[in-house]
Amino acid sequence: MEKVIAYSLLTEFDIALFQAGKHFQLYRKLGSHLMDLDGRHGAYFAVWAPNAKLVSVTGNFNNWQSGAHELLPRWDKSGIWEGFIPGVVKGDTYKYHIHTATGIELDKGDPYALRWETPPRTGSMVWSFDHQWEDAAWMEHRKTVAKEPKPWSVYEVHIGSWKKLVEDGNRSLNYKELATELVQYVKEMGFTHVEIMPLMEHPYFPSWGYQVTGYFAPTSRFGNPDDLKELVDAFHKAEIGVILDWVPSHFPSDIHGLYLFDGSHLYEYADMRRGFQPDWNSYIFDYGRNEVRSFLISNALFWLDQYHIDGLRVDAVASMLYHDYSRKEGEWIPNIYGGRENLEAISFLKDFNEAVYLNYPGVETIAEESTAFPKVSHPTFEGGLGFGQKWMMGWMHDSLSYFKRPTIFRKWHQNEITFSLAYAFSERFMLPLSHDEVVHLKSSLIYKMPGDEWQKFANLRALFGLQWAHPGHQLLFMGGEIAQTTEWSHDRGVTWELLEHQAHKGIQNWVKQLNNLYKAIPAFWKHAFTPTGFEWISGDDVQNSVVAFLRKGDSEDQTMLIVCHFNPNLMESYTLGVPIDGIWTEILNSDAIEFGGSGAINEPKTAQQTPSHGHAYSISFKLAPLAVQFFQSEMPTKTKKLSKAKTDSAEGMPASPDKKTKVGSGKKSKP
C-alpha cells in the first residue's frame, strides 16, 4: 500500500487569508479533492487540527487502519495536516483519525466533505461534481435585476416530509422526484421562491436539519449532491428562486462532528458560558477565531457558488447577537464594554453579509431575528448588520394572537392588527407563518382560528389576505395553503387527501389567486419596504373590526384599496374614503364562493364626490363577512392580462380551476 505523498494545494497567501478570517473559498483547498499527481490517480486531503499530535486518514481503501496513511503537518504552523493518497476513487468513505494532545484518539468526519454516508452511518465520502448546469438564463437575469424591486412570495418546505409515499414504506421523495413534483406544485401555486429547511448533513432526522455535522454536504437521505443540483436547476428553469436555511449559530455534540474536533475547543468557544447553547443542547461557534470565520463564510458562499442558491435564511440570529440569550444572570460573560452583545458575532455577521453581496449580486440574506436589535437589514456602511431582509416576528405573534380571539372580543384588540405598521418600514421585513407556528402543541393554523367550521376557514382566508396585502414579503409553511388540520410532523407528509373537501380546496385556490394578484400588481412589491407604498384609510373602526389601507405603485392608476373585515356579519353598505375619482373594481374577495365564502361580492363602484376619511371621494360597497377585499382604481395592463387569463370577466374575480361557471354567479347564505 502506497504511503502519503507530500503535496499541497495551499499557498502562503491561502494560509494568510485563512488565519485572517478572510479566506472565503476554503472548500477549494481543504477537505478531499480527487486529482492526478505524477500520473497516479488519487485524492489530496487537508484538515485543520492544530492541537493534534498525529492525523491519519482511515477509510475503506485501507481497511480503516489508523496508521496506514498519516498526513503531514505543514511547516508554517497553520495547524493544517495534508497529503496525497494514491488509489483513492470517487465514492470512497473515510474519516480522520486524530491522536489528541491528551492521548485520546478520535475519529472525525471531514468538516469540508462534499458528501457523507446516509445516516445513521457517519463516514465522509470522497466526491466530485458531474452536474452540468442549465440555468444560465436565470443566473444572468438574477444578476441583471439584482437591485430592482421584485415580488417575493415564499413557500417554506421540509423536503423530508412534504410528501410521503405511504405505499413505499412511508419514504420521502428523493431530490429527483422533487425536481418534478415539488417544482411543478410551487409553480402552479404561484410562489416566486421556495425556502428549504436545512439540507446540510445531520445525524438526527427529528432535528429537521438544524443540528448540522456536514456543513458542505447535502444530506444523502434523498440522493447524491448532483441530484440536489438537478432539483435547484429545475426550480430555476421554472423561474423559481431557491432559499436555503443556513445554521451558523450552533452545532451538535456528536463525536464524529465539529465538537472537540482535535481534542480541544477548536470550533466552539472554550468557556461554556459562551460556548454552550442550552436551548438546543449544542455548541456555539467561536466567532472571534479567524479560522472559524473563514470556515463559516466559505460555507455560506459554497452553497451560492456550487449549488446556485438564491438566498440564505440565517437561523437563530438572536441567539448569536446576545451573550445572555436563554441564560440567567451569572451564566454569561459580558463583552469588553460590560454589555450583553456578542461583538464577535456581530462583526462576523457583517463580514458574512458583505461577502455575499459583494460576490453574488442578486442573492439575498434573510435573518430570523426576534428582538429589537437595530438595523438588522440595513447595509453595513449605515451601521447595520447587512442582511437583505428580516423575519417580522412581531407581526406574526400579534396577528396570530388576534386571530385566535373569538370575534366578539376583537374590537378591544384592534391594535394587535394595526401596531405592525408603526414599525413596518424600520427594516426590510418578511412576514412569516413558518414551521415554528404549527409544531409542539401550538396547533395547525386552521385550528388556531375561532368559531364554527365555516368561520375557521373564513378566518384563515382573511389571515392570508392580510399577510399578502401587508407591506413586506410573505412566507407560508407547507400545509398551510390547504388548511392542514394536524400539526406538522417530520414523520408524516402533508395531508394532501384533505383536498378532496371543497373547504380545503378553497383555501388552496385562495392562496394561488393571492400569489397571482400579488405578482401582477407592482403596488404590492414595488415599494414593499418604504412608506411611499402604503397609506391608511381606516384603522380605528374597532366596532366593526375593519381596517382599510392603500398599497401604491409609481402612479395613481396602480393604487389598490384593501379592506379587511374581521367580524362575521355582512354589511350591505359600507363607506370608505378613496383618493381617486372614477371606477373602483373589486378584483379579489376571500368571500367568493369558489374560495368557500358566502358570495358577498361587489360590482364595480363609481366613486362619489362625498368626502370621507380625509379624501375627497368615497365608495360604498358590500362588506363581506370575515373577509379581505381588494379594489383597484383602474386596471393597468398587467392586471387586465391577469384578469383575462385567471378570472371570469363578468365578476372580475378569480375563477376556480375546477369550475366553468362565473365567479359569484350564484349566492348562498353564510352557514
3D architecture notes:
It is a single chain. Strand 8 and strand 9 form a beta hairpin. The chain is elongated and about 90 Å long. 23% of the residues lie in helices and 23% in strands. It has 13 helices and 33 strands. The strands form nine sheets. An eight-stranded parallel beta barrel has the order 10-13-16-19-20-21-22-23, surrounded by four helices. It has a six-stranded antiparallel beta sheet with strand order 24-25-26-31-28-29. It has 671 residues and is of the alpha+beta class. The C terminus is likely disordered. The longest helix is centred in the C-terminal third of the chain and has 19 residues. The protein has three domains: 114 residues, Immunoglobulin-like, CATH 2.60.40; 337 residues, Glycosidases (TIM Barrel, Alpha-Beta Barrel); 125 residues, Golgi alpha-mannosidase II (Immunoglobulin-like, Sandwich).
